[in-house]
Amino acid sequence: MNGKPELLCAGHDPVLNRTRRLILEKCFDVKLAHSVPEAMELLTGQRFDLVLLCYSLTDDEIRATVQFIHSLPSPPKILALAEERERLQLGRGDAEFLSGGPAELVKKAAAMVGIPSNGAARCAPDEPLQEQQQKTG
Predict the structure, then answer these.
(1) pLDDT tens per residue, range 58-86
(2) Are 40 and 8 in contact (CB under 8 A)?
(3) Which fold has domain 6-136?
């Protein structure tokens, strides 16, 4: 634990997961789950501040994960990445992210966990993502 808010990124696509980790790790301690069962296992054993649900999950997987998260004693907020698909059963503190680039995603996620906008601006990517990926391999 490094003092950053804890974020779980759940989705089937390993490239998207890795890319999101690169984008979000300046502001968050990011854990990845490549399946719903893996996400549920992580959520059972660790407290997260935010769960990012990828559009690579099916609507049924989203609903099951949201329902599971809301059943937790102290549920984290949920940010569902949507690709013009309705995400059902999101709660009052949850949100959808429909479009925007990496900087907007960081700002949205940071705002959801209470990071001030000036702090989120420092976390947002300041160079093209392609260059970041080339540097980290």
Answers:
(1) 888 988 999 999 999 999 999 998 765 56
(2) no
(3) Rossmann fold (3.40.50)
Q: In terms of DSSP bridges, do strands 29-33 and 6-10 run parallel, antiparallel, or are they unpaired?
A: parallel
Structure tokens at 103: 């900087």
* Residue 6, phi then psi, degrees to nearest 5: -85, 130
pTM of the model: 0.83
Those residues with Cβ within 8 angstroms of residue 44's Cβ, 6 or more apart along the chain or in another chain: none
Contacts of 106 by beta carbon, 8 Å cutoff, 6+ apart: 23, 24, 26, 27, 120, 123, 124, 125
What residue spans define the domains of the chain? 6-136
Helix (H, G, I), strand (E, B) or coil at 129: helix
